[in-house]
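To: structure desk
From: M.T.
Subject: fold request, one chain
Message: Could you run this one when you get a chance? Sequence is below, nothing fancy, just the single chain.
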Amino acid sequence: MEFIKFNNCFAKLGEKFFTRVEPKGLPNPYLVNINGAGLNLLGLSHTINSASIVPEWLAGLCSGNKIPKGSDPLAMIYSGHQFGGYSPKLGDGRGLLIGEIEGPTGKWDVHLKGAGITPYSRFGDGRAVLRSTIREYLCSEAMHALGISSTRSLSIFSSEEPVYREKIERAAMLVRLARSHVRFGSFEYFHNTHQYECVKKLADYIVDQHFPEIKKNDDRHLEMFKCVIHKTAVMIAKWQSVGFCHGVMNTDNMSILGETMDYGPFGFMDSYDPSFICNHSDTSGRYSYESQPNIGLWNCNMLANALTSLIPTEKLTTALEDYQPIFLSTMLKLYRKKMGLLIPNINDQSLIDELLKILAYNQVDYTIFFRRLCFFHLDSGHKNLEDLFIERDTFNEWIQKYQRRLAIEPKNGTERMNQMTKCNPKYVFRNYMAEIAIRKAEDEKDYTEIERMLKLLQAPYDEHTDCEEYAEHPPEWSKKIAVSCSS
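Reply: Done. Structure tokens follow.
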């Protein structure tokens, strides 16, 4: 392991925060995919000569079979509100924090997902399966490329080891990278077990590791909480702007650093529908697309409650009042960029709201509409947009308002188009795309589509003329896809 130097700062907090567990490596593992961008984050790209030839030491690490010097594998403990109900003791049931690596852009947690049974596995086997690792591997990279804070992916290894779910599947292991794996639920666990000294110790750890600029402040814990509120509000605004639905916004799935994490039954909207529910298990619609902003605030309230031993309640309440203004102002800025509006106008919000109502009524594909809007010109027709609508008169009335609004913008059509194509992706990771990659991997052991989609999703604003099929309307069969908490 001469190319890699591990440490594990989290382990130094003490065993109240975790349980040490040796990974259960995959038997006879084989490479499914390794992410060059992930290697770059860790400063390891020079160690790989070919995407299909991985050094033995790296393959051993990524399959859980070789634990590097300096690492300290552990399963973190936390609790969380799951679909609104409090679960007092959760924790890493199939994942292990191996440690962190100092890369060119700072420290990254290295986390094995699917590394076997831990004390928090409950009745599970601690394994991940190929389909779920493919989904997370590709979506986390897609989200990063869309400018949304997210955990990252390094590799997928698989094995012939059978794993029993609804059917027999093959075991797989994902190496996930993150700035931190501490969650809202980490604080909830120690607060609700009255271990207030651990709440403070964890908060100080987060400040020390991730907010050193406030380390010497007397009110550093409050400043940390304000940072969490800001990062969470911005993250969710960015989710909304690209039509992303997380599916399981439990507090144990909420990163203390505002990183999108724990990809399960996620979904990007096809037709614009504010009530869109991506998780088949979410029968009440708690985590629907339109509910995500309020759930983000609800989760921040749960975190605030867990910090009451550190921060006076009135200061927490005042800090929480910042969430909605941050979210709304971020949304307005993002939609202005999506629509090519550089000069703020008092009527912009009503123009946006009117458009979204029309998109919903006509069930217009969200991603396709905004991508086509990039190429709208004042002096030409808009048939490519009009064709997306069933009821065209209302849309034509709106487009005339949009034309008048564009007339006060300083940039010409070409400049605006160039700016808008950097804000409106041509490609998002729709669930049917995941299903195509999964079927080829599971049924044919063909992993080339994973590599093809990885390159596509890491540059979602580019044209990719060789992948045009993924920019079209989803196929009819995609409507039958159902993803749930087991995904």
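Reply (cont.): Residues 341-420 form one domain. Let me know if you need anything else for the meeting.
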